[in-house]
Amino acid sequence: MDTTDSTLDDPLAASPSPRDRILRAAARLLAEGGREAVSTRAVSAAAGVQPPTIYRQFGDMRGLLDAVAEQGFTRYLLAKAARDRTEDPVADLRAGWDAHIGFGLANPALYALMYSDPRPGARPPAAIEAHKLLEGLLRRVAEAGRLRVGVGRATRLIQAAGVGVVLTLIAVEGANRDLAVSTLTREAILAAVTTDPTPLGGATAGAGSRRAAAHAVALKAMLSEASAAFTPAERGLLAEWLGRLIREP
Q: In the CATH scheme, what is the homologous superfamily, with its name and number, of domain 18-197?
């Protein structure tokens, strides 16, 4: 697992604007001293601006912290977008999990800022984009016939487990961290939401319903691509029927 801290490289260093200087200063203080270190006095001194400038640019310190979190999400997304996809979407899902854990361990204070203060309806745009990327990867798994549950539920399960693992590990001193927790959780979650590469095979008890569910997940994931074949009412009804096969509400 690569935990090299590339997210704190300073792509804003060439920009002299007060806003960028404030963001750089806040991100650096956060990395060095945690959230408590990001005070108005400390940020204004480090950025070389007067305290009122912070409030003009960001409204308040909550606004500044939100902007730092948004920047963190953006850098994380850039790193994710740079990774090549393989022919195996489940392998890509496994690699994505490891990258997520690595990012959190390399940037504990930033990660805690990004994920430990959820507010309904107030997610940064980059956080929404990160969610969509995971959803898109799981849609590929579904289209391959290898997803046991619906894309939405699988996305929430993996996101909840990944965030929980990172927050658990960063609460422990580095030397005492049990990184096997990440590996074991990852494999348990993948076993819960994905199937083997040949979901049509096997004659064990319940195999028929599992095969039907896997096909229903795949068809539901691709339903939008067949939108011209159905009216909106028909698509809704088909989605409901598929949901019953998947045993989802």
A: Tetracycline Repressor, domain 2 (1.10.357.10)
